[in-house]
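Thread: "does anyone have the structure for this chain?"

Original post by V.I.:
We have the sequence but no experimental structure in hand. Need at least a predicted one for the grant figures.
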Amino acid sequence: MTVKEIVFTVQTAHELDIKDITPQVSQAVSKSGIRDGMVLVFVPGSTGAITTLEYEPGLLEDIPRALERLFPKGLRYEHHERWQDGNGHSHVRAAFIGPSLTVPLSNGRLTLGTWQQIVLCDMDVPARERKIIVKIMGE
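Reply from O.Q.:
Generated one for you, tokens below.
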């Protein structure tokens, strides 16, 4: 089995910025030369998350609204009380979605559904540059 690691960065613009990173992950797979196996996509940090969704304007509005209903920014968060950084809700939101995703790799292609893209969800309050680590394992 061969393992390759490719790292790229994504610039986010604001809190709850959702970025389609499928093209960068697909490019990493192509560069790796691995045809069959698994692809792990991971964002370091406790306020970023990786998931899949249909990357379309409606969901780009629905997801932040749903996260606000589930984990309101205005609640009292112990993290915020301790660190005074205003992002307790960001940590909770990211923890529920998770920092990684594994996608099967078949015949040199990500095995995604027709309307399924890999996305980075930046939950933190300020804009930032996020590092994305892609591990491709297989043959």
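V.I.: this helps a lot. The two ends are 6 Å apart (CA to CA).
O.Q.: and The chain has one domain: 2-138.
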